Amino acid sequence: MITYMTLPGDTLEKIASDLKVENPIYLKDFHNKHCAVYDRLAEPVKMTPGTLLFIPFGDEINKLNHEINKNGDSLYYHPPHGKIPYPIPLLSGIYTITHQKLENGTVQTSYSYQTELKYLRAEQDDYFFSLQIFGSHKNGTESDSKMSSLSKATSAILFPIEIRVSKTGKITETKFFHSETVIKNELDALKKYFTDDLSASYIDHLKKMTENNHQVLRSIRNTLPVQFLFGSFYRAKYKDWTDSDIYHEFIPWLSTASPIRFELNNRIFPKDKENDIVKIIQFGNSCDYRNLNQLYDKDYEYHEQSPINSYSVACRHEAEYTLNLTSLMVQKVAAHFEIQIGDVTEQDIFTIEKQLK
């Protein structure tokens, strides 16, 4: 046991978290057990700088946490074997997505749409889903522009797509439900209605893409909904407390550029037993040596060993995952991205939320 003098901003919850005590009420009781009667803490506990607290130290913390867990009073979720279980078939459902793009704090554009995942089957250690995208809106209204109409028409031909997911949650294969010939013929038929050169070029680009399974797989992987449902969040490793080990991930925040490499770690927050949820925040800073021009250059090859330099892209990422405490299935992800380009601070705010039946 040691004596601790509280600092400005200290709360019982903060001190408990710093000590890795799993319930601050037990920290209060520990102090009250060892202090003089007139120094006991009473509810509601209010900390003032300079308050002297008797707090556990070393093995006393382990004993206190053992008592907390024995009584079922722990506020924290501990991933078994250091990893959060990944109930992949439970990903099935309809998700509503919103995506805002801002410059210097002012919203420039706002998108919303829905994605549906239908669980199809399991084969050995792999899971199969159909993936559909629909209900697209821009700035709150359904766009009636020619390019928007073309995009909807081509999406109706290309989707749904079948995806294969490994037991670790990585998408390993994509496949169209219709043959390449049927898809190409239906895309060609659109040229009767979209007769300008730009539309024809876009249709020809999609036809060429259908010939390359790797390009289709990469295009599906490099979408934010797929990133947040099938990224490496679930593959993070935890030790004896709330923070995960550091891990790395390429995240496609810039829609027409290559995904940016981030250094990430997760932090588990106290359980919300009343609502049967637990929140985990993913923090990240870019660790990509490429500059913006290289990220937007589709022919530029990434070299993992290249060092970061003064021209490297600098940006940050944060995503709050809300998981059902019983099934550990993602209910919602609220993510934020920020990058400085010259004098402009560009931000993206992205949410994906599963619709409850």
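[next item in queue]
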Amino acid sequence: MKVAKFLCAAALCCAMAATSFAGEPNPMVSKSIATIEDQMGSLPDITGQERIGVLVITLSNPYWVTMKERYGEWAKEMGISVEVMAAPTEKDLKSQLNTLEAMVAKKYDGIIVTPMDPFNLIPGIVKADEKGIPVVCSGPEVSRDGLKQAGAVMDGWITATFKDQGRLCAEDMAEKLPSGSEVAIIEGIPGAGQSKARREGASEGFEKAGLKLVAVEAGNWDRNRAYDITTNLVKAHPQLKGIYCANDVMALAAVDALEVAGIEGVTVYGTDFIPEAAEAIKSGRLAGSTTFSQAAWTRGTLVYTLKLIKKDEDLPEKLSVPITLVNGENIGQFQGWK
């Protein structure tokens, strides 16, 4: 499908929309919004009767709490109904599927899903297809082979290059460490698409930079588990100089573990740029993180879904959300980041 080109007036509209809910938006947020909408065109005509269901991973993680808030802010701005639901924990695959199936029964005009792993939501997507409800995958991808085998169709994809998140952190860490330094990775749930991609990106980045990867451990996105892993890592590898974590919750736990153990000189990076991580970067406790604008991501996903509901034939199959590295040198540029 061809990409509908986006005019300057539409870019101005999206910047104004960002201002309306965000006060003084960071210029990079407005740029991210424009970059996403340039791939698909601007907000379609809406009636205000549109109902969209959004399924995220879990509201026990502050990252997803913020995503829920951003969806709500844009829903109010657009004058549509958006309901955000989630599973109790990061690992409750069955509960997330049950939630999706309940959402299908509510007969939303469109549904947005962020899967815990590539396969757990496929039965629910099949049911949505049967009812003619368009489904958009936002974030880590549902397995395309799994969808094909189930006879299901994903109507659209919104994603970022998660592999680059790991790579950017590894490259930035390498600039701070001598060649040959020992480093480790704490990934999320091994089967999760974004965890796998971040791990691979970091691993490749370390190898290219000449750093020695001595351990890869599954933190399962969990703060306590990451804390224990870090405690054990520094005992097993006393020369460890760097740790990349696949989310900020685990990275902050790693920092806590190092501080409690009284160990200095270990550089830690995370991913997601949650508010607590931003403060840790400012204070120097955390070396850096990677991020994309959650305001831009959620707005782009809602606009894309609305265009599907309106049967826009010019939509691309997939949208890409730009990512960026945050560290102690550029943290000042992220004032007002959303």
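[queue empty]
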